[in-house]
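Inverse folding, one chain.
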């Protein structure tokens, strides 16, 4: 008997279209049984999806119908397939710049009663450049998010077959804090497919090891940023970034005044002088969830851990690594997995050399930082517990934004088929609700209402990206021949790397392979 898992969260979205799962208004016996989530906008029950004011209508969910590649070859055994139709197949489809589960909000980057005014982008700064007041606001708001029960969202405590309880009339949900819900979303995107007690299928990941790594984390961070704006009461609040490309073997933001120093009595824990030493972790016991065929229920499972950095002569990435990654023109390349070569996404994620050359021993950029932080940060299902996750991914996103500016890619550069499940261009990102596809987030940050105070340009490296108009015709001809040769070599290489059909990789570590 195939046993499916339910990882749903009932959410009532506030006045911003935050990434979430299911609105509380839809988490009723009727809503779950009818699979329809089309709440009314306001007190008039006839104003479904704001239809009376032309904001939207109740429509069938659009799902990606293109074939996927990668190691996951099962069908109809995971509730994240064709997301979110295992739970709801009708939702509000909003028009124009309206958004949200009932079309009562504006899309990211827009404001006004009719969502027709551009919102001034908030500016994400280097955490080391924040004023003392800005740093205090960031840390205080994070702590508030950790200790505040989410007013709108809850998480399911049973898989989808047991969602309505033993009598079919009692939805099984629990409260969770604003920050822990952010952690839960990341866990749910990487968790194993539950086939039965102690029978997980591990070769599946909706937010890593494929093109959606970029768009998924962009939307994830953007959604939390909106929640932090509400908690702080500051609509201009922005998550800072950590420029981890220092080449050092120490974390320069891991201090008690910032994100927590090392505990002198136990180097694997955060210093008791830091506010983060009291933070508990959730969603850490992946093996237990698999054995019990259940989900993370948001309970405390211990403390944040960080290992000793600099092991085996390791050091953080360098700006040369970042510039090398930014020199890769193609967003991704077949098979759109960890064995893609000359792929900007794969280089940024850390599975190939910064210059695009594939090397199975490589651990760089994003992956390298997680590995060096070790402990909680090295476990993909629980990494978001550590607040350093935010600033790490903000800088990763800033590198992507710089790449977008340099190459101005079209939507066609994001693969529309044969990427791993969840990673095709039109796939709705799991577990966000209302449904949002990768394509919708594959746009500039300013289109989404934020920007970066950073310059990743480098005069010495500019020639990598722009060919000067004064070059002689002979040199240009030789360069063209060289490019043709390199393309030929690349095609041969790509044919040699096929998706791993029988892969059974674990999601525990960012750097573990199929």
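Residues assigned per position:
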């Amino acid at each position: 008997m195939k046993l499916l898992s339910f990882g749903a969260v009932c959410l009532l979205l506030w006045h911003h279209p935050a990434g979430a799962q299911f609105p509380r208004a839809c988490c009723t016996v009727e809503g779950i049984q009818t699979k329809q989530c089309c709440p009314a906008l306001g007190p008039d029950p006839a104003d479904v999806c704001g239809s009376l004011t032309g904001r939207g209508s109740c429509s069938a969910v659009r799902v990606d119908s293109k074939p996927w590649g990668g190691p996951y070859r099962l069908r109809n055994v995971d509730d994240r397939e064709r997301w979110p139709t295992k739970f709801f197949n009708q939702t509000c489809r909003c028009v124009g710049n309206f958004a949200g589960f009932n079309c009562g909000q504006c899309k990211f980057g827009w404001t006004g009663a009719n969502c027709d005014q551009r919102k001034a982008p908030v500016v994400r700064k280097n955490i080391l450049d924040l004023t003392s007041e800005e740093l205090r606001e960031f840390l205080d708001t994070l702590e508030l998010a950790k200790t505040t029960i989410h007013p709108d969202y809850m998480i399911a405590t049973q898989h989808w077959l047991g969602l309505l309880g033993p009598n079919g009339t009692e939805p099984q949900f629990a409260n969770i804090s604003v920050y822990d819900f952010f952690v839960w979303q990341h866990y749910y995107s990487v968790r194993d497919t539950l086939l039965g007690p102690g029978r997980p299928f591990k070769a599946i990941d909706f937010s890593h090891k494929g093109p959606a790594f970029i768009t998924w984390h962009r939307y994830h961070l953007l959604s939390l940023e909106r929640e932090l704006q509400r908690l702080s009461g500051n609509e201009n609040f922005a998550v800072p970034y950590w420029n981890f490309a220092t080449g050092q073997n120490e974390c320069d933001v891991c201090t008690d005044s910032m994100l927590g120093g090392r505990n002198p009595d136990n180097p694997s824990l955060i210093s008791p002088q830091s506010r983060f030493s009291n933070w508990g972790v959730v969603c850490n016991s992946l093996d237990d969830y698999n054995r019990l065929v259940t989900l993370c229920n948001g309970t405390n499972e211990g403390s944040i851990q960080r290992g000793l950095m600099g092991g085996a002569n390791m050091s953080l990435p360098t700006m040369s690594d970042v510039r090398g990654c930014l020199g890769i023109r193609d967003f991704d390349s077949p098979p759109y997995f960890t064995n893609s070569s000359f792929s900007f996404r794969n280089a940024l994620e850390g599975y190939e050399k910064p210059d695009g050359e594939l090397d199975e021993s490589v651990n760089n950029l994003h992956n390298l930082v997680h590995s060096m932080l070790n402990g909680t940060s090295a476990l993909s299902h629980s990494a978001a517990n550590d607040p350093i996750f935010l600033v790490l991914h903000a800088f990763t996103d800033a590198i992507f934004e710089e790449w977008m500016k340099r190459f101005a890619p079209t939507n066609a550069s994001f693969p529309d088929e044969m990427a791993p499940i969840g990673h095709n261009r039109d796939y709705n990102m799991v577990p966000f609700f209302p449904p949002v596809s990768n394509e919708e987030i594959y746009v500039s940050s300013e289109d989404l209402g934020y920007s970066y105070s950073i310059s990743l340009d480098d005069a010495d490296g500019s020639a990598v990206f722009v060919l000067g108009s004064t070059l002689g015709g002979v040199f240009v001809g030789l360069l063209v021949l060289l490019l043709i040769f390199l393309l030929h070599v690349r095609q041969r290489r790509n044919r040699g790397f096929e998706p791993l059909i029988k892969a059974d990789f674990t999601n525990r570590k960012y750097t573990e392979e199929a």
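The chain has eleven helices and 16 strands. The two ends are 27 Å apart (CA to CA).
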